[in-house]
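ok, trying the design again with the full structure, not the truncated one.
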């Protein structure tokens, strides 16, 4: 099984507290790097190449999902889209659902490809349909990202297309093997319509009644071999991160790119839209070893991965890895479990993660090992200006009271870990508006005090719907861990994020906090880690522009943002590493990450410069 359906009742870890291969590699590169990015949520600059890789993989997988016996070479890109999804964003297993491929009649058999060359030509035509759309979607995501950097105009669509074609040629080698093996050991079962528990995405869903509609007779046909050799991959239209494979004890998760399993062996492939040069190629090797462990433990420790490959689409080279022995797989599991206990199962602090970078590794195109570069990992680290391993330090002011120009009295600041944007209250429902397949809009009251409830998620961190199935005016409810904000009209808003929950109760109204028992404005001080910028166009057609910064103190980190005109010239003057005070901010939050909002009455002041 390449993906896991998590039993929420048994999952004592939760999706936000699992270990992943990227976290492991980050920690091994430098413990402080892991702490900055995974614990303090620092986000590196988002250059276009990070999005290009996702576009290439998306177009490649959408092409693999299709069949030359069902989809003409010039068909619409969304012919097999809009698959049924369940409440978890996974392909829906409910029987009787109509899937896209079931709506299609097979193309005339005389038009089915009879050779590898015909399959290649058809597949390239499909890539030419999908890739421009995938690139445009990724461009829009990049443009919306508050930390975008670089220039999208430098993205070369011709190079992206060639990477897709390189991946196609690598897959066609698997297709040729399938033809040579006459479809492999499962040909007849496939013809009868048998499906894996997690079938390779093809638009047919989980069940086929009767024979497969593309089945032939005699020796395997080219079209059948295309269907049979299709690897498993993440369904392109599923929710993000919904198709992870999860350790039986829930503390580790990963998402495979391609899993070939049509024969008697299992091969896991990691797709990389890159040349494979540089230090990160070492991370890819370690990631695949962890995925081999994950496959082994999720198959009862009875089935191992036979082959591991990295497909460097930019270099058009395949790197083959030796699959770890069972002894080594057990060692990897034990090592990662100890790491999870250190990193995720207990509260950690910055002192536990010193800047101790590992040496850089050297790789040529295709991930071929070579001599390491004459450089240190810290030289190009994004956080070198705030990290004591680079140009920064871990010194923070012990004093929490500051005098700044324009204020007659000192400003008292609060450490980030002591900021509390959440409230639990018991109240009554004043009004409820429900629409089909949408979250209810609620207004609640305590005496004369009113608030609106804004439900931001369909599932909370426990995987359950965070509001009662039936809710009506006059119901008494408990609103737990709501994020309290005040909108521009002065209305109190209670936001329900992954940590929030609404339930019915018989308790008295004032057994919990008063609706107005929260602090609206706060003062914080911290080191400037980076600035960010976000622009867009509102529903009224008018452009908007927000700016912000990430700060850190000895206890944590937070993002603070606001409209551009509310920041003032001190924002423009501040540089990474400066100690800055931001006064009179409102609080917001998402899960464990506290955020700040400034308005025209807020103030930023540089307390000391890093220069």
């Amino acid at each position: 099984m390449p993906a896991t359906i998590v039993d929420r009742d048994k999952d004592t870890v939760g999706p936000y507290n699992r270990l992943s291969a990227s976290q492991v590699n980050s920690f091994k590169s430098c413990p402080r790097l892991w702490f900055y990015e995974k614990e303090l949520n620092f986000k590196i600059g988002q250059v276009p190449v990070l999005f290009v890789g996702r576009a290439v993989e998306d177009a490649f997988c959408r092409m693999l999902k299709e069949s030359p016996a069902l989809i003409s070479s010039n068909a619409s890109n969304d012919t097999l889209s809009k698959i049924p999804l369940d409440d978890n964003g996974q392909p829906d297993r409910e029987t009787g659902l109509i899937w896209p491929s079931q709506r299609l009649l097979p193309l005339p058999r005389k038009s089915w490809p009879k050779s590898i060359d015909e399959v290649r030509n058809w597949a390239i035509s499909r890539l030419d349909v999908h890739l421009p759309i995938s690139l445009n979607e990724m461009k829009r995501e990049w443009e919306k990202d508050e930390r975008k950097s670089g220039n999208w105009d430098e993205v070369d669509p011709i190079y992206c297309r060639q990477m897709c074609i390189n991946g196609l040629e690598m897959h066609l080698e698997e297709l040729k093997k399938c033809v040579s093996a006459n479809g492999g050991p499962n040909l007849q079962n496939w013809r009868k319509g048998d499906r894996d528990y997690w079938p390779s995405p093809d638009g047919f869903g989980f069940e086929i009644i009767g024979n497969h509609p593309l089945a032939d007779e005699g020796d395997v046909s080219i079209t059948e071999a295309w269907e049979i050799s299709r690897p498993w991959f993440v369904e392109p239209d599923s929710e993000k991160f919904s198709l992870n494979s999860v350790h039986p004890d829930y503390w580790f998760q990963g998402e495979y790119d391609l899993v070939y399993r049509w024969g008697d062996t299992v091969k896991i492939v990691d797709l990389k839209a890159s040349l494979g040069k540089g230090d990160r190629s070492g991370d890819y090797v370690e990631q695949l070893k962890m995925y081999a462990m994950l496959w082994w433990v999720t198959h009862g420790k009875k089935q191992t991965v036979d082959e591991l490959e990295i497909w460097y689409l930019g270099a058009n080279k395949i790197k083959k890895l030796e699959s770890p022995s069972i002894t080594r797989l057990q060692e990897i599991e034990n090592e990662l479990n100890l790491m999870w206990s250190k990193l995720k199962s207990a509260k950690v602090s910055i002192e536990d993660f010193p800047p101790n970078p590992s040496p850089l590794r050297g790789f040529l195109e295709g991930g071929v090992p070579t001599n390491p570069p004459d450089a240190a990992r810290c030289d190009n680290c994004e956080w070198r200006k705030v990290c004591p391993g680079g140009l920064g330090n871990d010194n923070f002011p012990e004093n929490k009271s500051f005098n700044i120009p324009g204020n007659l009295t000192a400003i008292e600041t609060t450490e980030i870990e002591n900021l509390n944007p959440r409230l639990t209250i018991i109240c009554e429902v004043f009004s409820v508006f429900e629409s089909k397949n949408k979250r209810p809009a609620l207004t609640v009251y305590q005496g004369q005090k009113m608030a609106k409830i804004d439900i931001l998620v369909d599932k909370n961190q426990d995987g359950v719907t965070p509001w009662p199935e039936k809710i009506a005016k006059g119901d008494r409810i408990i609103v737990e861990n709501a994020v309290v904000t005040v909108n521009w009209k002065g209305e109190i808003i209670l936001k329900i994020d992954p940590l929030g929950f609404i339930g019915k109760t018989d308790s008295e109204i004032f057994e919990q906090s008063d609706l107005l028992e929260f602090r609206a404005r706060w003062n914080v001080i911290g080191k400037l880690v980076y600035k960010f910028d976000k622009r867009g166009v509102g529903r009224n057609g008018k452009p908007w522009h927000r700016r912000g910064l990430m700060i850190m103190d000895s206890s944590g980190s937070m993002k603070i943002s606001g409209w551009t005109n509310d920041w003032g010239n001190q924002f423009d003057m501040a540089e990474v590493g400066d100690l800055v005070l931001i006064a009179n901010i409102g609080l917001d939050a998402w899960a464990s990450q506290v955020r700040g909002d400034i308005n025209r009455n807020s103030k930023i002041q540089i307390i000391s410069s890093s220069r």
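Keeping the full-length input from now on. The longest helix spans residues 116-144.
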